[in-house]
Design goal:
The complex is a heterodimer. Chain A contains four helices and no strands. Chain A is an all-alpha fold. Chain A has one domain. In chain A, helix 1 crosses helix 2 and helix 2 crosses helix 4. Chain A is globular and about 30 Å long. Chain B is an alpha/beta fold. Chain B folds into four domains: 149 residues, Alpha-Beta Plaits, CATH 3.30.70.20; 249 residues, 3-Layer(aba) Sandwich (Rossmann fold), CATH 3.40.50; 171 residues, 3-Layer(aba) Sandwich (Dimethylsulfoxide Reductase, domain 2); 109 residues, Barwin-like endoglucanases (Beta Barrel). Chain B is 30% helix and 16% strand. Chain B contains 31 helices and 34 strands. Chain B has a seven-stranded mixed beta sheet with strand order 13-12-25-24-23-14-15, with helices on one face. In chain B, strands 29-33-30-32-31-34 form a six-stranded mixed β-barrel. The chains are: A mainly alpha, B alpha/beta. At the A-B interface, helix 1, helix 2 and helix 3 of A face helix 16 and helix 23 of B. The complex binds iron/sulfur cluster (3 copies) and FE2/S2 (inorganic) cluster. The site of one iron/sulfur cluster has 13 residues of chain B, from helix 4 and helix 5. Chain A: Pfam families: FdsD. Chain A: This is Formate dehydrogenase. Chain B: InterPro entries: 2Fe-2S_ferredoxin-like_sf (IPR036010), 2Fe-2S_ferredoxin-type (IPR001041), 4Fe4S_Fe-S-bd (IPR017896), 4Fe4S_Fe_S_CS (IPR017900), Asp_de-COase-like_dom_sf (IPR009010), Formate_Dh-H_N (IPR041924), Formate_DH_asu (IPR006478), MoPterin_dinucl-bd_dom (IPR006657). Chain B: GO terms for molecular function: 2 iron, 2 sulfur cluster binding; 4 iron, 4 sulfur cluster binding; formate dehydrogenase (NAD+) activity; metal ion binding; molybdopterin cofactor binding; NADH dehydrogenase activity.
């Protein structure tokens, strides 16, 4: 899928959780959201974008969440 | 005393009473005990004594005008009308005496002397209360003759496409006037003139031009042939009747399909229908002609390429071709490359077998439903906060509400029968708050109703509004802390409270962003929090946004904080668009969930389904509709089984959708018509209409209602049978002989449906889930003692403005909606006489914006967005605010979705239909897309009419 589309979708998720006071909990929730609702090929693609290509343009919290908790 | 067992085929003359006090009286020597407050006529009917009557019927308050129902009461003088005289303890009533017989005969004689005596050729012969009463009172002669003044030459009004008004047969009983007021709430009719001159009038216009919304309540109430369905005039009176459920909106009205053999003569709303109590709207009652429309396709068709004409084939050939193509694609590209889409128009049973086919046989969870583009944020938001993806109340609950808060919904157009009930409550004095960018009818355009506050917010700012309201509730000490402490997660509440209390969430700070005055927001928040039992009703104006799920959670936060959950009169109520949105979601049509909203990764649930279905199942969530389309656009998704859904017309960014479909190798469409998606298909399975199949629909209040087959499917099979045939051809036979057996399987595998069966629906009429051992009769109100998730959970709802921003190039916001007479993509209603009210989609433009652009009423205007361009006719109105334009999307050639974009809700990918930045200008011709569409669709329609030899499919 077009990575730009995945980035913007993931950033929207990051925006939602940004205001949560407990940031580590928020990161877990972001990853949980991706694991629960994104199909495996989409998760693989975004994880690779973060882990291999540096995650440019992706919400910082989402990057951290993906690195720590994404299931691929 | 035992509760009265009412029989829905008896007209008790006047309404029931809710009084707990019982009164005992004697009627014609029969002693009878009834609730205080009912009329003598009603009590008599309960006792089995039918007092003659004409102006009374039990759906309306009594009026006392015909004087046929007179009775004698011992110890009282005169002859009181039994319909307007309430019962009292110890009364001794006589309904048949020589004197009464005399008076009644005299009254009837007067009626009949001004009535055409053409009973034998009259359309209601045998089904006419005037005729019955003439018999009941023993009328034998009419002394006055037709020599005096009479109304026999009055002219018929045939303007309404569905019913006729023949004033020569009118007895001026005013049942129609009262039905329009009390039942429908439109107040279109009056009795004008006095004495002999008095007559029924639709505001001195013909019915079509009047305020009438063609609900048919007056036609149903009319005791004579004055107001009568044209179908009855044509076909004669029906001879049998079968109770079924409307296939249009999420109200889920129950109807008696009144039949002559296999032909429907009329649809009459079922008197004891759980959702509609004998009322209906123009769609359900009248707009069923599409089921036999000539455009309907009843023979399967196949073709190799969408550039080829269709080849009509037998069922076996079509099924085998589809199966072989799916198998080929699966082998060539892998299981991830195929999937399916179900629809809210399908029955629960159809959705269930479709998702079963995809999960168990396709071997992948790539199944989604059209709720993706409407209420998926409801499912997500309510599950997160309250624990169940469903509305909390019954419709009847609104009759206990003191404050009604409507957000982003237009009930009088979208959910008309429920709106009538809501209007009744509003006329009784309930307060009304409306949050909507547009002035919907309930704001100030419904008789005797005026919104206390209209928060006319900018499209896309719902979350800011919810935060501002929450800010007032929290900072002005209006939180019901005891409820929150007992029922909710306190930590989540505290986080939310601290968040909304921040100054940046105050109405004053957000007023400019919202375009709503701060003091009005404060007043509305106070009214919601302190005005008594308060209920929120919301629709697609909440969900179809980039923050749709956030708003749903914000709404649940407001309800929890003010203790407006868990009893009558309160709650969080999504108004579902299509008939079976709730049901199709319940049935596991989302890619991440099995039936009953259980995640596919949950090992126990998966094991349950694996053992029942005998196939291994994937624990990975599948692709959603927009994901499927994106993947298809990139060449990774190749085969689609699309049942009852028209994604080309109903999904955003049409050109993206059609490009994706063009990229697929096998698109299978199952539908009544060659819909827009079918124009891109390779296999067409003709579908059955709701009159031709058995199953169930689940409405917005979780009410499961039966759909019953009243005629043979014109295409040969019910839709679930087609799906099981495809499954069998793919090597997985499903052994059902009737839809009821599918429901038995659903019940066995889904805890919230455990107690549901066709037998139960036959007995109860309908039932609201959860229906299990603990709640064998269902659950009208949810979350009474505790929330389904245990403790309610608050979520912080940070407002994030949409990226779909206005700028110099696209300075206006386009928002979309729907109207009463048309339904969704219009495939059904456009093929009925409902087009009399809405022949085309138009663009509403504010006078200021119109003037700036030199646009006049009726001009063609081009609407350009970042996604595309289309052309519609303009209507200048200040119902929309300056800076906002509005249209409906019921006609494909309008191309409303050519301009909507790919933006979507963060949690569910529900498209942001309600906000598109556009520019609008006067034009003289159709857009390029529209011209292309015209040529393309004409060619496709011709392909479907071609004979087999022209096709190239081998
Ligand atoms: S059809 Fe409905 S709206 Fe029209 S006049 Fe009759 S009751 Fe009123
Ligand atoms: S039209 Fe029918 S319901 Fe209305 S006043 Fe005449 S007879 Fe009565
Ligand atoms: S369209 Fe909706 S309101 Fe109208 S009859 Fe059908 S279910 Fe009822
Ligand atoms: S029925 Fe009582 S006055 Fe008409």
């Amino acid at each position: 899928m077009d990575i730009k589309r995945l980035i913007s979708m993931a950033n929207q998720i990051g925006d939602f959780y940004e205001s949560y006071p407990n940031q580590s909990q928020a990161q877990e929730n972001i990853a949980k959201h991706l694991n629960s609702f994104w199909a495996l090929p989409m998760r693989k693609q975004i994880a690779e974008y973060v882990n291999v290509q540096g995650g440019n343009g992706l919400h910082q919290m989402v990057q951290t969440a993906i690195k720590a908790h994404i299931q691929v | 005393m035992d509760e009265i067992k009412y029989n829905s085929s008896i007209d008790y003359g006047t309404p029931k009473s809710q009084s707990a006090k019982q009164v005992t009286l004697t009627i014609d020597d029969r002693e009878i005990t009834v609730p205080d407050g009912v009329s003598i006529m009603h009590a008599a009917a309960v006792a089995g004594v039918m007092v003659p009557k004409l102006c009374a019927t039990d759906s309306l308050e009594p009026f006392g005008s015909c004087r046929l129902c007179l009775v004698e009461i011992e110890g009282r003088r005169g002859y009181p009308a039994s319909c307007t005289t309430p019962v009292a303890e110890g009364l001794k009533v006589h309904t048949q005496t020589p004197k009464l017989a005399d008076i009644r005969r005299g009254t009837m004689e007067l009626y009949i002397s001004d009535h055409p005596l053409d009973c034998l050729t009259c359309a209601t012969n045998g089904d006419c209360e005037l005729q019955d009463m003439a018999g009941a009172v023993g009328l034998r002669e009419v002394r006055y003759g037709y020599d005096g003044e009479n109304h026999l030459a009055s002219v018929k009004d045939e303007s309404n496409p569905y019913f006729t008004f023949d004033p020569s047969k009118c007895i001026v009983c005013s049942r129609c006037v009262r039905a329009c007021e009390e039942t429908q709430g439109t107040f279109a009719l009056t009795i004008s003139g006095r004495g002999f001159e008095s007559k029924v009038s639709a505001g001195n216009k013909d019915f079509l031009e009047s305020e009438c919304v063609s609900c048919g309540a007056c036609v149903q109430a009319c005791p004579t042939a004055t107001l009568i369905e044209k179908t009855v005039i044509e076909a004669g009176t029906p001879e049998h009747s079968v109770t079924t459920t409307c296939a249009y909106c999420g109200v889920g009205c129950s109807f008696d399909a009144e039949m002559k053999g296999e032909e429907v003569v009329r649809m009459t709303p079922t008197k004891n229908g759980g959702a509609n109590h004998g009322h209906s709207c123009v769609k359900g009652r009248f707009a069923w002609g599409y089921a036999t429309h000539k455009d309907r396709i009843t023979t399967p068709m196949i073709r190799k390429s969408i550039k080829d004409p269709w080849q009509q084939v037998g069922w076996d050939e079509a099924i085998n071709y589809a199966a072989s193509e799916l198998t080929r694609i699966q082998k060539q590209y892998g299981s991830d490359a195929i999937g399916g889409i179900t629809s809210s128009r399908c029955t629960n049973e159809e959705v269930y077998v479709t998702q079963k086919l995809i999960r168990a046989v396709f071997g992948v969870n790539n199944v989604d439903t059209c709720a993706r583009v409407c209420h998926s944020p409801t499912g997500y938001g309510l599950k997160q906060t309250l624990g169940e993806s469903a509305g909390t109340q019954t419709f009847d609950s609104v009759m206990h509400s003191d404050v009604i808060f409507i957000i982003g919904a237009n009930p009088t157009d979208g959910h008309p029968v429920f709106a009538s009930q809501m209007k009744r409550r509003l006329r009784e004095g309930a307060k009304l708050i409306i949050a909507d960018p547009r002035e919907i009818d309930l704001v100030a355009n419904s008789p005797h109703i005026r919104a206390d506050y209209h928060l006319k917010l900018r499209p896309g700012t719902n979350v800011a509004l919810v935060s501002a309201l929450a800010h007032v509730i929290v900072t002005e000490g209006l939180v019901q802390e005891a409820f929150v402490k007992e029922r909710c997660e306190w930590d989540s509440f505290a986080e939310w409270r601290d968040f909304v209390a921040k100054p940046e969430n105050s109405p004053e700070a957000l007023a400019d962003e919202l375009g709503v005055d701060a003091e009005t927001m404060r007043a509305a928040a106070r009214m919601y929090a302190t005005g008594g039992d308060a209920a929120i009703y919301y629709g697609l104006g909440v969900t179809e946004h980039s923050q749709g799920s956030t708003t749903v959670m914000g709404i649940a936060n407001l309800a929890m904080a003010t203790a407006n959950l868990g009893r009558e009169g309160v709650g969080v109520n999504p108004l579902r668009g299509q008939n079976n949105v709730q049901g199709s979601c319940d049935m596991g049509s989302m890619p991440h969930e099995f039936p009953g909203y259980r995640h596919v990764a949950d090992d126990t649930t998966r094991a349950l389904f694996e053992s029942a279905w005998g196939r291994p199942l994937s624990k990975e969530p599948g692709l959603r509709i927009p994901n499927m389309l994106d993947e298809a656009g990139e060449g990774n998704f190749k085969g689609l089984y699309c049942v009852g859904e028209d994604i080309v017309q109903s999904d955003p960014n049409t050109q993206h959708v059609t490009h994706s479909l063009e990229n697929m190798e096998c698109v299978i469409v199952q539908d009544l018509f060659l819909n827009e998606t079918a124009m891109f298909a390779h296999v067409f399975f003709p579908g059955a209409s709701f009159l031709e199949k058995s199953g169930t629909f689940t409405n917005a209040e979780r009410r499961i209602s039966p759909v019953r087959r009243v005629m043979r499917p014109k295409n040969g099979y019910e839709d679930w049978e087609v799906t099981t045939k495809l499954s069998e051809a793919l090597g997985y036979p499903m052994h059902y002989s009737h839809a009821s057996e599918i429901m038995d399987e659903i019940a066995a595998l889904t805890p919230t449906f455990r107690g549901v069966s066709f037998k139960k629906l036959d007995e109860m009429g309908s039932v609201q889930w959860p229906c299990d051992d603990e709640h064998p009769d269902g659950t009208p109100i949810m979350h009474i003692d505790e929330f389904v998730r245990g403790k309610g959970k608050f979520f912080i709802t940070q407002y994030v403005p949409t990226t779909e921003k206005v700028n110099a190039k696209f300075p206006l916001i386009l928002t979309t909606g729907r109207i009463l007479s048309q339904y969704n993509v219009g495939a059904q209603t456009r093929r009925t006489h409902n087009t009399a009210w809405h022949a085309e989609d138009i663009l509403e433009v504010h006078p200021h914006d119109a003037e700036e652009r030199g646009i006049k009423e009726g001009d063609w205007v081009g609407i350009v967005s970042r996604a595309g361009e289309t052309v519609l006719r303009a209507k200048i109105t200040d119902r929309v605010q300056a800076g906002v334009v509005y249209t409906t999307f019921h006609h494909p050639e309008s191309g409303a979705n050519v301009i909507t974009t790919d933006n979507s809700d963060w949690a569910t990918n529900c498209p942001e239909f309600k906000v598109t930045a556009v520019q609008v200008s006067r034009v003289s011709q159709l857009s390029d897309w529209q011209k292309h569409y015209k040529t393309f669709s004409e060619a496709q329609i011709a392909f479907a009419g071609k004979k087999a030899e022209a096709a190239k499919v081998s």
